[in-house]
Specification:
The complex is a heterodimer of chains A (about 260) and B (about 425). Chain A has one domain: P-loop containing nucleotide triphosphate hydrolases (Rossmann fold). Chain A has 8 helices and 12 strands. In chain A, strand 9, helix 6 and strand 10 form a beta-alpha-beta unit. Chain A is globular, with a radius of gyration of 18 Å. Chain A starts with 8 loop residues before the first strand and ends with a helix. In chain B, helix 2 packs across helix 6, helix 7 packs across helix 8 and helix 8 crosses helix 10. In chain B, a hairpin with a 2-residue loop joins strand 1 and strand 2. The radius of gyration of chain B is 21 Å and the shape is globular. With about 425 residues, chain B is α/β, with parallel strands linked by helices. Helices cover about 20% and strands about 35% of the residues of chain B. Chain B has a domain of about 60 residues. The chains are: A alpha/beta (about 260), B alpha/beta (about 425). Chains A and B meet through helix 2, strand 7 and helix 3 of A and helix 7 and helix 8 of B.
Chain lengths: ~260, ~425
């Protein structure tokens, strides 16, 4: 486990509550993430895992009803989605959308340039950029044809997830939230994706793995594991908690929480 | 139609227009009689089912007499995309030789329609006439008023690579181009048509195109609608597709005040195949109506239709696509897709795919959707740091790509992309994406 006290706060969530169409999903959630850490958020279906990911990334269809979120000390909730991305927040989607007609590489370049502009840097050189993309593609074992295709157009489930990690690798976020990145992957694809994520672990970056199963955590060892149930974090622990959840399911967590 | 409207409707001046003799007395007599019936009967009204969506009110008060001004609007010609191959330029239906350029590919024969009229037109008669039904009333108007036109004939097994470009320019009043295309067995042709007029033109174009594709022949036919802001175009295209022959039609409706395309395809023999693609861009107050009729008349015939519509402001569009699988047309395969994007609360697009199946063992599918920009897709782009306006413009542009991507000619595709971009208020933001 990373215990460097020099690590700075990346994400401070306090009492976060959110609803969609009048239905409360998050009900006072607390979470603290520091740089260099990998946190896994686990929980049963419908617990609010995807809502948490989308709320943090700035999806407008959710209404925030209470609480605060600081991202590197800055009020995250007041920023529109695109500003969050430019400041270094990245969401790897559970279901990456297909956008035929918008080229993969152009999107990636525009995303990188938007981020560079925010940081006061010049636009990336086209030639260097292509070199960078090719290098990261190799890491993710992606086919050359990716370069000429539309965003996720005709990609298999595994290819879409690899593409998400590729984007993460190019954009180098401060905080990456990976929403069910393991779902729909066969074991080989899972290894490629996990290897990609592991290679992106850094002292100045934090990663939030949102997952239903422990399977992904066999390949990416988290520093902390949290159980998200009924809209809040009911239990936190280390990597061993994931194994316990795998063996015992989730119900005991709720019972235990009710007694404390 | 009431008496007052009738006395002012645009057909009245036709009574005074001398009909050019076709050299065939029976056809001349038919034209004179048809003109009388047209003037007496007037134009179809929205009560006619065929004209429910595309009202002719817009042209009730326009002078529809054929325009015989052949002066050259140079700016229009300059706006054409770069072209390879031969270009024919017609102004108000008249071929202007000095504006036309390039060499006709080997095996392609071109005949001015006037010359067809000079010779006995017996065999041609059916192709030059129309009936009095509401469906064919505009075609009948063309049959009466057209003074010239062009006929292309591709000899058997000739497969020219270079396209044939046909430019139609309308200046004012009635414009009645007539085009006949015949592909003999095993031949191929790539025909690209352009409809142009100036923004201050009050022209009403009523082009009629008649296509025959014989055994194993293949026609690629693209029409680019770039008429000026006040022009109206009502086009009628009929194609007969023979055994193992194929017809590809792409229409890019990007201009005019109102455009209607009636596209009738007859898959007449075993193995006949048709692919129809269209893009409707209805911004400002533009109205665009596409009506297709796909007749599967023989076994093993295949058709596929892909239409995409974008409406903005008070733009209005419709897609009315009818597929009929006739008795005995077993193993017919038909697909229809109409997707439409509405960008404003006052924009409207009506999609009506219809399917009539009278045979067993057929494969037919159709789908139509009309909606606004997908919030989930928009969010994906925002979450990558793309700003809202750029993301929106990008998604509108990408939506049109299903059709634009089918354009094989790079210059043409570029011209269409440019036009679509120009219609987006935030075009500058996404130029980098689409270069």
């Amino acid at each position: 486990m990373t215990t460097n006290t020099q690590n700075t706060a990346i994400l401070e969530i306090k009492g976060l509550s959110a609803e969609i169409n009048g239905r409360a999903i998050l009900k006072g959630l607390d979470l603290h993430v520091r740089s260099g850490e990998v946190h896994a958020i686990m929980g049963p279906n419908g617990a609010g895992k995807s809502t948490l990911s989308q709320v943090l990334a700035g999806r407008q269809s959710y209404a925030i009803t209470a609480g605060s979120v600081l991202f590197r000390g800055e009020d995250l909730l007041s920023l529109p989605a695109e500003e969050r991305a430019r400041r270094g927040l990245f969401l790897g989607f559970q279901y990456p959308v297909e956008i035929p007609g918008v080229n993969n590489v152009y999107l990636l370049k525009a995303a990188l340039n938007a981020k560079r502009k925010q940081a006061g840097l010049a636009e990336v050189d086209a030639f260097e950029f292509l070199g960078l993309v090719r290098e990261k593609m190799q890491l993710m074992q992606m086919d050359e044809s990716f370069l000429s295709r539309g965003v996720n157009e005709g990609f298999s489930g595994g290819e879409k997830k690899r593409n998400e990690i590729l984007q993460m690798a190019v954009l180098e976020p401060v905080l990456a939230i990976l929403d069910e990145t393991d779902s729909g992957l066969d074991i080989d694809a899972l290894k490629v994706v996990a290897n990609g994520v592991n290679s992106l672990r850094r002292h100045d970056r934090a990663i939030l793995l949102v997952t239903h199963y422990q399977r992904l955590l066999d390949y990416i060892t988290p520093d902390y594991v949290h159980v998200l149930m009924d809209g809040k974090i009911l239990k936190s622990g280390t990597a061993t908690l994931a194994h316990e959840l795998e063996a015992r399911g989730y119900d005991w967590v709720r019972e235990e929480a009710a007694h404390t | 139609m009431n008496a007052e409207l009738k006395s002012t409707h645009g057909l009245a001046p036709l009574a005074a227009v001398p009909l050019v003799s076709t050299g065939d007395s029976s056809h001349d007599a038919w034209r004179t009689a048809a003109r009388g019936r047209l003037i007496a009967g007037g134009l179809p009204t929205p009560r006619d089912d065929a004209w429910k969506y595309s009202s002719l009110n817009l042209i009730q008060r326009r002078d529809l007499s054929p325009c015989t001004d052949y002066s050259v609007p140079a700016q229009l010609l300059a706006s054409l995309p770069e072209r390879q191959g031969v270009t024919f330029v017609c102004i108000n239906g008249q071929l202007i030789a000095e504006l036309s350029s390039g060499a006709l590919p080997a095996g392609v024969r071109y005949t001015p329609l006037n010359d067809l009229f000079d010779s006995p037109i017996g065999a041609m008669q059916a192709r030059l006439r129309a009936d009095d039904s509401a469906d064919q009333r505009l075609k009948l108007l063309n049959a009466v008023c057209c003074t010239s036109g062009v006929a292309f004939d591709v000899s058997a097994h000739q497969t020219p690579v270079e396209p044939v470009h046909l430019v139609h320019i309308a200046t004012h009043h009635g414009h009645y181009p007539r085009t006949l295309v015949t592909l003999q067995a095993g031949s191929r042709l790539n025909l690209i048509e352009y409809y142009l007029s100036m923004d201050d033109s009050n022209s009403v174009s009523v082009p009629v195109t008649d296509i025959q594709i014989e055994h194993g022949a293949a026609l690629q036919h693209t029409t680019l609608g770039l008429a000026g802001a006040n022009s109206v175009v009502y086009a009628d295209v009929t194609a007969h597709v023979g055994p193992d022959a194929s017809y590809v039609h792409r229409s890019l409706e990007l201009g005019g005040l109102a455009t209607r395309l009636d596209l009738k395809v007859h898959l007449d023999a075993r193995g006949a195949e048709a692919t129809l693609n269209g893009l409707l861009l209805a911004d400002k107050t533009r109205q665009i109506d596409i009506r297709t009729s796909m007749e599967h008349r023989a076994p093993n015939t295949t058709s596929s239709q892909t239409y995409r519509g974008v409406a903005n402001d008070r733009g209005r569009g419709s897609y009315d696509g009818k597929v009929v699988v006739h008795r005995g047309a077993a193993k017919s395969d038909s697909r229809q897709s109409s997707r439409n994007l509405l960008l404003g609360p006052k924009a409207e697009i009506d999609a009506r795919p219809q399917l009539e199946i009278n045979a067993d063992d057929v494969k037919c599918s159709h789908g139509a959707t009309t909606g606004s920009i997908d919030e989930e897709v928009l969010f994906y782009l925002l979450s990558r740091g793309i700003d809202h306006d750029t993301a929106r413009a990008l998604l509108i542009f990408a939506f049109t790509d299903d059709v634009i991507a089918t354009l094989t000619d790079p210059a043409l595709r570029h011209a269409v992309e440019k036009r679509v971009l120009a219609s987006l208020p935030t075009a500058a933001l996404i130029r980098d994406f689409v270069q």
